[in-house]
Specification:
Elements: H1 2-39, E1 41-48, E2 50-53, E3 58-73, E4 78-83, E5 90-91, E6 96-100, H2 103-131, H3 137-162, E7 165-167, E8 172-176, E9 184-185, E10 190-207, H4 208-211, E11 219-223, E12 232-239, E13 248-256, E14 268-273, E15 280-285, E16 297-302, E17 306-311, E18 313-318, E19 321-326, E20 333-337, E21 346-350
Helix pairs in contact: 2-3
Amino acid sequence: MKGKIIGTTVTVIALGLIVMTLMNNKAKSKAKAEQSEISTTLPVQVQQVSYTQLQEDLTLIGTVLANNEVTVISETSGRIKQVNVKVGDNVSAGTLLVAVDDELRQAALLSAQANFDKSKADFDRTEALFKEKAVTESQLDAAKLGLKAAEAQLITARRQAKDTRVTSPIAGQVTARPVDIGAQLNPGSPVATVVDISKLKVKVNVAEAEVFKLKEGDKVNITTEVYPSTVFEGRIASISAKGDEAHTYPVEIALANSRNNPLRAGMFARATFASVKRDKFIAIPREALVGSVKDAQVYVVENGSTARLRRVSVGAEADGKLAIIQGLKEGESIVTTGQNNLKDGATVAVVK
């Protein structure tokens, strides 16, 4: 009897252990399933797409050029006896820059003037006599030719005397003067460089896709690093009809130089063409793209929890954003962070 009781007790204990083991395994399986379900929900960050302009204006970097720059050269030979300007001086058109010794040329001018006066008197006398038929027509023609030859010599002598005084052909500032008193000049020798910066030009190269949106007279805003808070107003002066090897076209912008904030030739300037407006597109961050621009895809979150891989067509790119021509609608949410771990139809949890 005692043996039966012990056997029954062992059986009950064994059954209890089996039941407890089964319940424990069920709990572990349930927890594992729940854990597996949690792990398939991937955290992502999203952004709602909307229409925007990739760039408000076309902005390019160019170089400031002088409105006019002239290298003044000598047209005569001789020794410099006078220098009237130095580098940095402002001169007017006609200002004397240097003077060459002109003693011999002045003497030649006096001789040419005397010869002309004599020839003129001879012609007048011969013409009067011809009217009285006291001389022949051939004598009158000879007097006329003598007068013309004397006049040509006088013009030459005057020009040679004038060339001894080298003057500035334009108003501006002297930026170079490579000669000094006592130097020997020859025809073609540079005397000075004069730059007119009362008006300036900014030269930029515009891509062929943009140049056809420009026209002469369009307003352009000019800014510089030297005067960051000052905006200079310019106008398009010319657009080249021929592009370079990079398919860009030189465009020159004219502007008046400022007295308060003067610009100098050779400076860099930023030209903003306010007349060139960009079209509005649905734009997305570059990092939201899956794959290349040619084979572009993005993940769109549907119903707040499902990521769907969608093919899109990409247009222009600017400021780290891509213009989407086709494939997205305004208001849709796209994955911007976490898309590398996704696949089409994955369950996601949107985090901020």
